[in-house]
Amino acid sequence: MEAGNITEEFPAITFPWGSVGSIGFPILITVYAFLVLSIVCDEYFVPCIQTLCKKLSLSEDVAAATLMAAGINAPELFTNLISTFYAEADIGTGTVVGSGVFNVLAIPSVCILVSGMKIIQLKDFPLTRDSLFYVASVTILAYVIQDGKVSWYESLAMLMLYSLYILVMKYNLKLIEISEECIGRRIQDGLPEDNIGVLSPLLPRKNKTPHVLESGTLPRSEIFTEIPFDQPARTWDTIVKMLTMLTYPVNLLLKITIPSCHNQANILLILTFFMCGIWMALLTYVIIWMITILGMGLNIPHAVMGITFIAAGLSIPELVSSVIVAKQGLGSMALSNTIGSSIFGILVCMGLPWFLDASLIRSDHFTPISSAGLDHSLFILVISILIMYLLFCCNNFKLDMKIGLACLIMYALFITLFIYTEVKF
């Protein structure tokens, strides 16, 4: 969808109290929806992915780049499948570049900020693997849309590239062994560094995601059970109690609609995975809807809305799930989730609808698309992932405060540059 007409995609709604209500209510609803989304990810989606990891014997980064990415992007895939058959395929320049840059630059910054400014050690192979496939995905997208139409064999090439990505995931451990032998290193299981923190979840709950890493490192909340009765602790306890009360109705609804993934049969795990996707899609829709209303109330230009708030809203599920696993010390899983989601969004969420449309619906076997101004946007995406990768290489693949700040500064620069070009031209 284009940034210029995105406000027409949502139902009209009028809040009381005039201009104050048109700004205040969307903010409150957005915060509440974000809170509920964090509960869905923290209590259901991430535990479901971790349970599937054990059942399928997958590493965390592989599961994040495949299962977690597919679960987050499944609603977008279904939406694109439906819209492709009823309207001309349209790639929103602002949302495409905004979501991509947000995923690779802003989310790592948020992950390190919420981890208490600790160092999060990353694995070099997963980041290298995902970055290469991300660049390949953006490159093939730029190629297939250059003439304003997509053929069935071009969209099939996109799907084949994702199949290759899955094949690489299947032989992930073997490829790690080969890569480490080539550079003269042994496989290192390694313990977490002394200053790597494993923090508590966003909200206290009964059925927690396991926070004990294989190294035996425990969260501080499980080591230090006694908290001094100082004023900040009492204030935080009061806030937690208020949040628990406010989210009790929706917590009850979540327990009814989403089966628990703990000690359940495979069929229930699939149902949990599917229901989490539905809830994340609904909550993301509400967040973007409210952000759009807020932007209209503040008279923010549509181009600016598309590249900033709307694009960030589309990446909310990736942000929340990545933050949750990053707080558990799983930095590679967090980044594999964000980059893997972008790869899935490009190759599958775009490639599959285009392939079905061109091969089954169109008599000339070409899907017409509208992608004005996307060339320089895709170039920005490639530059952003390369800068992120170089930053991590220079920092020995550690996500720390200086990398977080560098990514945040680069994100601000890219957004400023894009807004300037959109508004000027």
From TrEMBL:
Q: Report TM segments.
A: 20-41, 93-115, 127-145, 151-168, 267-291, 303-326, 338-356, 376-394, 403-421
Protein's membrane topology: Multi-pass membrane protein
Where does the Sodium/calcium exchanger membrane region domain start and stop, copy by copy? 28-169, 269-419
What highest taxon heads this organism's lineage?
Answer: Eukaryota
Q: Which UniProt keywords apply?
A: Antiport, Calcium, Calcium transport, Ion transport, Membrane, Potassium, Potassium transport, Signal, Sodium, Sodium transport, Symport, Transmembrane, Transmembrane helix, Transport
Where it mainly occurs, coarsely classed, is: membrane
Compartment(s):
Membrane
Q: Name one GO molecular function term.
A: symporter activity
InterPro entries in the cross-refs: K/Na/Ca-exchanger (IPR004481), NaCa_Exmemb (IPR004837), NCX_ion-bd_dom_sf (IPR044880)
Q: Name one GO cellular component term.
A: plasma membrane
One GO BP annotation is:
intracellular calcium ion homeostasis
Would you identify the family this protein belongs to, as annotated? Belongs to the Ca(2+):cation antiporter (CaCA) (TC 2.A.19) family. SLC24A subfamily.
Instruction: Report the protein name in the record.
Output: Sodium/potassium/calcium exchanger 5
**Native species:** Cacopsylla melanoneura
